[in-house]
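Problem 12. The chain below contains 327 residues. Write out its predicted structure in token notation.
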Amino acid sequence: MKLKFPDKVTDFIPEGDKAIFAVCVGIAFIFWFFTKMSNKYTSERVVEVEYMLPAGKAFSELPAEKLKATFEGSGWDLMNDYLFGAEKVVKVDLSRERPPGIDQATLLSRISDLSLNKRKLKITKTVPSTLYLDFKDEEKKTVPVRLKNKITYATGYAPTAPPRLQPDSIDIFGAKSLLDTLDYWETVPVVYLDQKDSFAVTVRLAEKLPRLVRLSQKTVEMQVPIEKWTEKKLYLDIAVRNVPDSLLTLFPKQIETTFSVPLSRFNRMTADSFSVIADLQNVPLTTVNNTVPVLIEKRPQGIRGLTIEPKTVQFFVENQEESTSED
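Solution.
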């Protein structure tokens, strides 16, 4: 003979007593809940700190903006404060405070004043235990703006000038100890790929040292001039410097120069735009290889990849008296 066990606890209870059983369980739970909620508990909550700096002052080091406060009280009081209490924000008026800061006792008192029932709730500690306040007179420093960019260009295209920022410098306001560490201010990363046309955009300045410094403006304008480029060749005469009291002949008398130039300036690039010299100062005139390097003395702006050929030329010296006697 096998024993049959009930599937549910309520199977032990006669059918007519199940409602009474449910009521008893409910009453027992209520008593248990009320008993538990009447006990003492601790709870941690985050408390915001809001600072009000007087005009002309700046932080040297940013103080804590959040505190972890430990509350102690009955379950009822903790629940009521959590559900119906105001948001916990400690406001610190720095025109009334003085360094080094606000100690633990003062913090506990101010947080307690924010509680719904401060007589029944106790704040036992905060982390950090002290708000250290380090603020000084605000000063100004002007620094250049540094562009943080990645700009690429389509084949055959290139900028005719570096990207230009307007303005190219800004004013930074803050404590002197911080300003002394800043030599420039970067933009946010700027990325433009395979560009063919000139463009202008607004670029945001990087957000760093929040609440420690403030900027005279948050954006700058960037302009990038772009054109199609092409290759050009010119033949340039060589001018001789420091010629001795002798007849002198150069070979060759011209060099070929090759460079890239924007299409809009192609026709303006002429031989007069350049100056090429061969300087014989401190060059021995009786060497086996009578050669002298060719130097570009003047070149126009806005060209790229300038090369010359040849890079050296030969010179031949003939005594002037000998030349005269032969005549």
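Discussion. Confidence is low (pLDDT under 50) at residues 322-327. Students who got a different answer should revisit the alignment rule from Section 12.3.
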